[in-house]
Amino acid sequence: MTESRKGLDLPGLGERLRQARDAAGLSQGQVARLLKMHRPTITEMESGNRKVTAGELARFSELYKVSLEWLTGTETHNSKVKMAARKLSALKDRDLETAMRIIDSLWQGSKS
Q1: CA 14, CA 91: separation in Å to the nearest integer?
Q2: What angle do CA 38, 53, 83 make, to 5 degrees?
Q3: Host H or E run for residue 95
Q4: pTM
Q5: Backbone phi, psi, residue 5, to 5°
Q6: From CA 104, how far away is CA 98, in angstroms rounded?
Q7: Which residues contact 104 (CB under 8 A, 6 or more apart)?
Q8: Domain-by-domain residue ranges, the chain?
Q9: CATH of domain 13-72
Q10: pLDDT digits (tens, 9 = 90+) for 60-104
């Protein structure tokens, strides 16, 4: 079986690929050129008529700047927490303290 025939069968993947491409402001033609694919291949993937290999999925994730978890529909609460922690760790101390006060306020409000 060829590489293009093997792939991941993930419900909703095509729609998420389209959403990510749109959010990145790219056309199917631009994506095809950047990833060295044919434009009809992108169309087939987005319509769900062609499976996407793990390697292709990784390339889409990198190009669109979205997580593999989001693309595959397997994003969990835990992955969102990890992403938030990475962003918080990049803040300056003063900004981190402000963010933590906001988070604490939201947490207290959710307990009511």
Answers
A1: 35
A2: 110
A3: helix 93-111
A4: 0.62
A5: -90, -30
A6: 10
A7: none
A8: 13-72, 77-111
A9: 1.10.260.40
A10: 999 998 889 889 888 766 666 777 887 888 899 999 999 999 988
